[in-house]
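Holo prediction — LVPGNMZS.
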Amino acid sequence: MSARKAVNFRQVGRKIVGAARTYKEHAVELNNPIPSEPLIFLKPTSSYIEQGQSIIIPKDTLELHHEVELGVVIDKPGKNIPEASAAGHIGGYVLALDMTNRTEQSKAKKAGHSWCIAKGFDTACPVSRFIYKDEIKDFQNVSLKLKVNGILKQDGNTKDMIFSIPFLISWISCRMSLEHGDLILTGTPPGVGPVSAGDTIECSLNDLICMSFDVKSENMV
Ligand SMILES: CC(=O)CC(=O)C(=O)O
Ligand SMILES: [Mg+2]
């Protein structure tokens, strides 16, 4: 077996590209249109946290939502990547949370502004350890679960995505170059909901990864 290759995406510190509404039922649950093509946004790498750190609710936030997602780490850079060869650009994966300030997101939607504040606050992107490619046999059949205070809230699978992961990689690469160390958040299955200070989020990917995060308000830190 060839030597496993890790991609030190945190150290490289490239961009985080979020894909939105890639699961039909999630688009429906938030009364959003089901997109005919991907909807993407950027999150700053300053939003990364790992287990042991807390998710901090930004002040004046009335509604902070959890979104459990499969993250795809890019190894081989590219632009205008053909869908047929897109999987060859994958270096590995992470289990990620696309924490979202719905209060800000609603304001942005109404004003026609970007989601950068809603998606980009510090601690908005909790991630697991790097997952090697050979640890996930089929990236289009990955179980994603999330509990809040022990109650199951999200229980999805990447097989239900509207757009395949190779399609997402290709589509994004036609609009911005993908670089070694980039992270693509591939979207969240249905069951998103609010979290509050004092809550505990537990999430899992297959039987491979489990991680948990506590939620605090800014005045608790
Ligand atoms: C409305 C959203 O924030 C969409 C999103 O992030 C997703 O994963 O879908
Ligand atoms: Mg998301």
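READOUT: The chain is about 15% helix and 35% strand.
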